[in-house]
């Protein structure tokens, strides 16, 4: 780590990187990070800490995740001889058996809606917690959920960034949530008739009771027990598609992570249906440029934007549930294909289109323990609080992940029963020479692959430490030739980008540029170096 990543922060107004040796938890909420740290102090490993932190986040950050969402993880388990292995977990759920394209069209929709029962797919988050604990955990499962139960039952002070997001959602939902399926949202999240202000105490006894049920049954009650029955009953009563049989059929998938080598470091992502492959395709294109000397160089920023456009065009055209893909992952990540896409980049901005490869609301957290085990974990309700559907007497807000499906009959990602949609949430991980460097991630919908590529380049091309890599201003491609840029970029650079044909949107609000965490481990000393997102109320807790 000392030879690859700088210890200096060129953004002195922001936080310095955090160092520790015996354990570290980086999360978007201080209370959740502290929960993970406490689990480490009680003898838990990085996996235990990740589960406990994730459960706590469903309580203290309901604006982006919940029990009714999906989850993915990359887990590095260290062996006593210093070697280790990276494991991938896909805990996303499928479309219900009754959710057909014809059913959606017959309901009067021309595209997949954002709210209500239609975009609700089988939630996978509880199954992720249980599977990780069973395979890698050290502490009893009930002990991991106990802090979250306490936070839900006793209440917690709402943080400033979460309060702002909560208020925005409340204002947005008032005129939209008018049917029986979404009325419970207001009862659960605005019990006093309005969203909480910063510092207001918020508690949910129903959420606590549901977490207790999950703890006692290792999450079986969500898929084949009392919670499944409540979800089924509410769905039937309010016109939903989800049934107990869909929940009972849910299975997590242990998957082989996919990677590309960038500047001598292996960058790992979960394979499709996740969009991590988009980040890898973007990095593959950038790998062919050997003159990337400065973040604030015109050619660097222009090439980054063009590369992510090409990668996203391919992602939207070819990526879906792996079983339904007609294009081979290996071909999309091949050097030959990256060369062909790189050659399409000119000196002016393009409107991207898919290539022709040869046939063949989210929270992110990172944990590490003193033994070298590390976890990159992400869970999400997709868009803000999710679908707006809240199951009465449970505190379960269901996600709207199915919004990502297409209704175009010939599209690779067309909705179908039992199918997983193109998924936005992606955990990342870095290794070098077979040794773990550590987990990284940037949450935020379709910003995520763009954030992954920028963070990796900040670390590997520009020598920034983890905190500086997250502090650095970001850009986001939003379609066509449109590039949204965060405050902090030099004005002259933006003018030059505009002259190259980019349509520049200077954003004064940073909420759309993602929120990330990074933990890197020095393989020689075991010292951990962490960075946490400055755009939200995030924190690092160390042991």
UniProtKB/TrEMBL annotation:
The organism of origin for this protein: Kushneria indalinina DSM 14324
Annotated protein name in UniProt: Gamma-glutamyltransferase 2
InterPro entries linked to this entry: GGT-like_enzyme, GGT_ssub_C, Ntn_hydrolases_N
GO molecular function ontology, one term from the record: transferase activity
Gene3D superfamilies per record: 1.10.246.230, 3.60.20.40
UniProt keyword annotations, A-Z: Transferase
Pfam families: G_glu_transpept
